[in-house]
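Format notes (please read before filing issues)

Several people have asked whether sequences and structure tokens are stored in separate files. They are not. Every record keeps both together, in the order shown below: the sequence lines, then the token lines. Line labels are part of the format and must not be stripped during preprocessing.
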Amino acid sequence: MKKLRVTVDGKAYEVLVEILDKEEESPAEKRRSAWTTPAAPAQVAPAHVSAPPVAKPAHHAAAAAPGEVPSPLAGKVVSIDVQPGQRVEANDQLVTLEAMKMNTYVFAPAAGTVESILVKAGDAVEEGQPLVKLA
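Then the structure lines:
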């Protein structure tokens, strides 16, 4: 067994490696193994391999009910950018959300009139929760 330090993505790990096809230890290795005690195996994080990120489609999830515009993610309502009775066109900004210190803008999926606003600034919302109802 040989103790090695392996660095993965900038993190150093100490690992014990068993050398399988070793013919004979060098004199220095024999001396070292004679006076060292075996260490407990180091915790090694499993290798994490991820696929490249997949781009999300431009449109958001379908509304929960006809005319309802759902939240695309869980977060906090920063501002309501429309008022009841206001006429909006497709892709007009309706609501600004904040999640992980980044703003996300929610746009009208189609033209219509703002029938009601179902949240207020400061509210915490869940993904899929209706924000605005369009008529």
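For reference, the curators noted about this record: The longest strand covers residues 2-8. The chain has two domains: 2-35, 68-134.
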